[in-house]
C-alpha cells in the first residue's frame, strides 16, 4: 500500500477469518478508530485494534513518519487454554519513492493472550451519539433474555470414538432445517421449527467456575424465539466453563444492537445492570463475549422476519451454536414481511 507523506488514509478493515479474533497494527503509526460495523464511533487513538470474525473497523492513519516501509500485521488473540494457528499475516505500508529493497519495520502487536488489552480496547468503543447520529438506546425493556454459551459432547455411533463435540445456547444445539426458516414462517409450513426457545437456561449453575467435564450432553432441536414487533429486547450472553471457557463473537442478522455492558465472571442481575452504559454504548452487529464472562445487548425488534443469531467462529456455528428470532409483523403497511420474489428457486 503506497502512501504519500503528509496525507491521511482511511483503512476499512474486515476480519474475514473463519475462527480467529485478530490483533492488527501498523508499525510506527497510530490509528484513529472512527467506525465499527458501519456505525460512527467517538474517535480514539490506538497502536493496535482487536477485531473478531464478521466485524469491521475503520481507522484513520496519518502518513507522518519518516519515509520508509512499515509492516501492517495481524495475528490471533486467544486467552483460553486452546491451541491456535499462531501465525502473523503481513502487508506493507510503503512511502512514495522508497525502493522495495528497504527492509520493513515490524509493529509491536499485543501478546496473543493479552486479555487486558482486549478488555481495555473494547471499553474505549463508544457511539458517536451526535445530533446527526444519535444513539437511540432502548431505556425501557419489554423482554429480558439470558442465554448461556456452552460446548458439549453428544453420542455419535458413526464417529471414531462414539461421541462428537457440539455447542449450544441454553443447552440447545441448533439443527438446521431442510426448508428455509423464513419460507416456513411466511407460508406457515408446520413441522419445520418450534417457537419455544427458552428465555433462560434449564438450570442455574456456577457458569464460569471450575471446568465441567461430566454430563455434557445437549438437547437437539430447531427451536426459535418469537419476538413481538417493535418490542425492546435485552439479551445477556453468558460464557460457561463447559469443557472450557472461550471468547465467542456473536452476530445477529437483520439488526444493529447496543452493547450496554460486559464483564468477567457470572452476570449478576442485581448489581451489573446498574453499571450499564445507556448513554453512548457502541452500536454494532457482532460482539465478542469475553472468555469466562458476559455481554449484554439491547435492540428494538422493528424488522419483521426470521433472523439468525450465531457464533461467528465457523467451527462453533457448525456445531450448532446458533438460534434465530421470529420477529412478528407489525400493524402498519410497511411493518410486514415482503412476499418472496416470483422467481425464488425451490429448495
Automatic annotation (TrEMBL):
This is Laccase. It catalyses: 4 hydroquinone + O2 = 4 benzosemiquinone + 2 H2O. The keyword Secreted applies. Its main location: secreted. It comes from the Eukaryota. One of its GO terms (biological process) is lignin catabolic process. Its cofactor is Cu cation. It is found in: Secreted, Extracellular space, Apoplast. Binds 4 Cu cations per monomer. One of its GO terms (cellular component) is apoplast. GO terms for molecular function: copper ion binding; hydroquinone:oxygen oxidoreductase activity. Pfam families: Cu-oxidase, Cu-oxidase_2. Belongs to the multicopper oxidase family. It is an enzyme of class 1 (oxidoreductase).
Amino acid at each position: 500500500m503506497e502512501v504519500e507523506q503528509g496525507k491521511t488514509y482511511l483503512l476499512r478493515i474486515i476480519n474475514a477469518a473463519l475462527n480467529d479474533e485478530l490483533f492488527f497494527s501498523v508499525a510506527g503509526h497510530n490509528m484513529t478508530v472512527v467506525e465499527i460495523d458501519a456505525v460512527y464511533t467517538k474517535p480514539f487513538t490506538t497502536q493496535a485494534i482487536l477485531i473478531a470474525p464478521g466485524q469491521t473497523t475503520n481507522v484513520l492513519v496519518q502518513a507522518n513518519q519518516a519515509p520508509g516501509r512499515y509492516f501492517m500485521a495481524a495475528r490471533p488473540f486467544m486467552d483460553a487454554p486452546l491451541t491456535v494457528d499462531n501465525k502473523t499475516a503481513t502487508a506493507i505500508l510503503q512511502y512514495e519513492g522508497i525502493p522495495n529493497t528497504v527492509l520493513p519495520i515490524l509493529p509491536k502487536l499485543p501478546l496473543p493472550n493479552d486479555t487486558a488489552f482486549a478488555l481495555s480496547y473494547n471499553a474505549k468503543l463508544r457511539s458517536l451519539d451526535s445530533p446527526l447520529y444519535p444513539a437511540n438506546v432502548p431505556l425501557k425493556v419489554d423482554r429480558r433474555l439470558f442465554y448461556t454459551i456452552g460446548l458439549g459432547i453428544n453420542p455419535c455411533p458413526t464417529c471414531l470414538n462414539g461421541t462428537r463435540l457440539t455447542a449450544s445456547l441454553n443447552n440447545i444445539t441448533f439443527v438446521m432445517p431442510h426448508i428455509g426458516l423464513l419460507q416456513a414462517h411466511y407460508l406457515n409450513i408446520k413441522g419445520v421449527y418450534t417457537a419455544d426457545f427458552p428465555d433462560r437456561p434449564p438450570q442455574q449453575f456456577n457458569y464460569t467456575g471450575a471446568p465441567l467435564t461430566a454430563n455434557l450432553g445437549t438437547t437437539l432441536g430447531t427451536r426459535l424465539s418469537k419476538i413481538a414487533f417493535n418490542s425492546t429486547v435485552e439479551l445477556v450472553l453468558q460464557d460457561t466453563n463447559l469443557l472450557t471457557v472461550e471468547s465467542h463473537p456473536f452476530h445477529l442478522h437483520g439488526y444493529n444492537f447496543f452493547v450496554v455492558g460486559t464483564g468477567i465472571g457470572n452476570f449478576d442481575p442485581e448489581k451489573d445492570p446498574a453499571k450499564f452504559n445507556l448513554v453512548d454504548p457502541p452500536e454494532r452487529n457482532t460482539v465478542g463475549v469475553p472468555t469466562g464472562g458476559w455481554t449484554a445487548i439491547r435492540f428494538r425488534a422493528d424488522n419483521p422476519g426470521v433472523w439468525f443469531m450465531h457464533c461467528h467462529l465457523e467451527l462453533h456455528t457448525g456445531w450448532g451454536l446458533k438460534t434465530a428470532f421470529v420477529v412478528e409483523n407489525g400493524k402498519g403497511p410497511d411493518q410486514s414481511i415482503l412476499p418472496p420474489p416470483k422467481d425464488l428457486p425451490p429448495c
